[in-house]
Amino acid sequence: MTEKTSDWKTVSIRQELVKEIEEALRTGRYRSISEFVSEAIRLRLEELMRTQGIPAEKRKEALTTPGQLLYTPKHTWAQITSEGNIRVGVSDYAQRHLKGIAHIMTDPVGKEIKKMEPLGIAETWMFMFDLYAPISGKIVKVNENLKNDPTIINEDPYGDGWIAEIKPNNSLTLEEELKGLLSAREYTKWVEKLEGRLRE
Amino acid sequence: MDNILCKAGLMMPVNSTINKKRFPPCRAACPAKVNVQAYVSLLQRGKFKEAVEIIRKDMPFPAICGRVCFSPCEDACARTNVDQAVAIRSLKRFVADIEREGERVKSEPIPKRHVDKVAIIGAGPTGLTAAYELAKLGYPVTVFERMSEAGGMMRYCIPNFRLEKFVVANEIAYIKDLGVEIKTGVEFGKDITIESLRKEGYKAILIAIGTQKGMDLNVPGEDLDGVINAVDFLKDVALGKHVEVGEKVAVVGGGNSAIDAARTAKRLGAKEVLILYRRSREEMPALPSEIAEAEKEDVKFHFLVAPKQIIGENGKVKAIECLRMRLGEPDESGRRRPVPISFSEHQYEVDMVIPALGQVSEASSIPKELSSKESRAPLIQVDPLTLETNLPGVFAGGDIVSGPASIIEAVGAGKRAAVSIILYLSGQDIHRDRGEDVEETTWVKDWSRVRKKERRYEAAGEKPRLSFDEAADYLRNLEEKARFEAYRCLGCGPCAECLGNTELCEADKAVVDEARCVGCNVCAVICPFSAVKKDENNIARVNEELCKGCGICAARCPERAISMKKFTDDQILALATTPIRRR
């Protein structure tokens, strides 16, 4: 559930491949080597799952709902950072509703917020969507890149599209609050239920 | 029997020649001749994407006009003979927004097919529309703009709560992506001149610099600290500057800028905002919906008052002294002239005064070589049909020619200028066929027989605040309401000219039974697309490329010699003789 830096893996890349990656970066197809490698790993996983006979919907779910995050029923995710803060963003389901995104407005750094209360608004052409905090605490960081290019939320909702970081009030309430959040599997079921309900 | 239902489901008058210069009243009233009937008809059938495309054929700002146009189309809508006008502007906003809500919209660059470069000065609605039209036809266009961003009054004068900045930026990005180059931070008269542009190889120039200066009140005390013209006030706010607003603010004027300034002052923290207007409520030029919104926000209106002087203390505004007015004889504009009532001086205690009397041009930015009328607030003189100035190849349009007007009038001017430039660059007579004569038409004869259906759809002023789960349901609901509203449209015009770019008119073509054709030529006369013509043997021949399958010729042929591949003769006759029931 938590992501410690020791869980990270170092990947070695052959020299010829590095040249190819640099070319891809130069032409703007990828923004960084790590993005290229993540994409390559994702494609490899997709292929492996396909050869093992895993059906398409399950493959998609595995790849669009990162397993190590926790979720709120309001479609925001929580991730513990190396500093012990909680990084917040919106899920793929939310991102699909934000295709017409104009901008994200968040409460400023320093603001105290409570769990399941709005910490910001996503404005699209037709709507204003409240973004709900997964835990209580104080906002310590806000993703400035979203100001210039809010579409990062669509491209990478779980990575570069993070919205804010919250410092929890204390570790005891943090544990309580995290227990109340949904796991990836629970969240996926929740989304399926919502989409099924809409189809009725 | 007057009408036939064409495949598109539109009503077409059969017993009259369909004349393309006949427009439904909505389109006739639009300064840019936007094809209202087509996009409303497409909306009825849920063809939202096609509806936006049809709007974009005529002008590049569907989302902007859907928010802030003063909608002369609605004033002209024939439905006002029955109940209320169709909510044309709101429907335009609906299709423009729903297109962008579902996907990011981008245009593709149009390959350049001409060598002659065109320079456009001013990236407001006139300049950008002209650039749009020229770029679509493959002309290399460069737009020069003084401010740091394009948009003109759309970007720097209309407040964000009426027209979001990202909407303006997005609509302009669409134009840029077509291949239009926009150079910002360039001032006409300083960085570039007509001379310098000609030297750089620009073969045609359009001056569309608008009227950027706010008109002064011309009363004593206007130079006190706390007096700021509405144009400058709104521009500072649009630039993101921190603007100090007084506790009690008086806005002088009755147009949309006055309302915008008042509502902006409220949002910036003014406790009390007054609007002082010298005529009565009925004469106020601002949009009634805007006046209503301002009243809801607790802006106080004072009618029949005009400022006499602004009173200050220690160089700062303390009060504004006004005279009461009464309405006298009508002036040149047709409105009754306000006449001051003697000894009626009274004061309003305010600490900020915002004159919002309209705009004038900046005399210094008009080149001396161009002839202009009036000396204090000159407007460039042009040929009204071609927009050409006294210098060949130099055109001017928009507010700098007409005086301050609306966005859609500016768009119309941009289109007219683009046509002139295209004719000029291809060596043709720029005066040919430029006449405006358009005839209003409707097929409805008896208004009392049209069933009433109240107008219930208005595009939201404030966006709804929802959760992601509610969005889909909300959209579905809105779609239903919009389609219902679109069905209120009576389809006044003959062929809606949906241009067959839809699947509405299925590609069923007319087929002539040569044995029956007697060569009377009625079909050729009546075909709106000129797709039927008599051949050397006096038999009607259908040009399958032009035929849109509307079925009029088939219904009208006295010999029953024409049939549509799908409909039999009897079916067409049955259709033509049944009164059409609209939902």
Our measurement of the CA-to-CA distance between the termini of chain A, rounded to an integer number of angstroms, reads 34 Å
Number of helices of chain B: 19
Mean pLDDT of chain B: 88
Q: SSE order of chain A, as H and E?
A: HHHEEEHEEEEEHHEHH
Oligomer: heterodimer
- Quick one: biggest sheet of chain A? 6 strands, antiparallel
List the helices and strands and how they pair.
The complex is a heterodimer of chains A (about 200) and B (about 575).
Chain A: H1 15-26, H2 33-51, H3 56-64, E1 70-71, E2 76-80, E3 86-90, H4 92-96, E4 101-106, E5 112-113, E6 118-124, E7 128-132, E8 137-142, H5 145-148, H6 152-155, E9 164-168, H7 171-179, H8 184-199
Antiparallel strand pairs in A: 1-2, 2-3, 3-9, 4-6, 5-8, 6-7, 8-9
Chain B: E1 3-5, E2 11-13, E3 22-23, H1 25-29, H2 36-44, H3 48-58, H4 62-68, H5 72-76, H6 88-102, E4 117-121, H7 125-136, E5 141-144, H8 153-156, H9 165-177, E6 181-183, H10 194-199, E7 202-207, E8 213-214, H11 230-238, E9 248-252, H12 256-267, E10 272-277, H13 288-296, E11 300-303, E12 305-313, E13 316-330, E14 336-340, E15 346-349, E16 352-355, E17 359-360, E18 372-373, E19 379-380, E20 394-396, H14 399-402, H15 407-425, E21 439-440, E22 465-466, H16 468-486, E23 510-512, H17 522-526, E24 532-534, E25 540-542, H18 552-556, E26 562-564, H19 569-577
Helix pairs in contact in B: 2-3, 2-6, 2-16, 3-6, 4-6, 7-15, 11-12
Account of the protein in words:
The complex is a heterodimer of chains A (200) and B (583). By secondary structure, chain A is an alpha+beta fold. Chain A folds into two domains: 5-63, no CATH class; 70-199, RNA polymerase II/Efflux pump adaptor protein, barrel-sandwich hybrid domain (OB fold (Dihydrolipoamide Acetyltransferase, E2P)), CATH 2.40.50. Chain A has eight helices and nine strands. In chain A, a hairpin with a 4-residue loop joins strand 1 and strand 2. In chain A, helix 2 (33-51) packs antiparallel against helix 3. Chain A is globular. The model of chain A has no long low-confidence stretch (mean pLDDT 82). Chain B is α/β, with parallel strands linked by helices. Chain B is built from 19 helices and 26 strands. In chain B, a hairpin with a 5-residue loop joins strand 18 (372-373) and strand 19 (379-380). The radius of gyration of chain B is 27 Å and the shape is globular. The two termini of chain B are 20 Å apart.
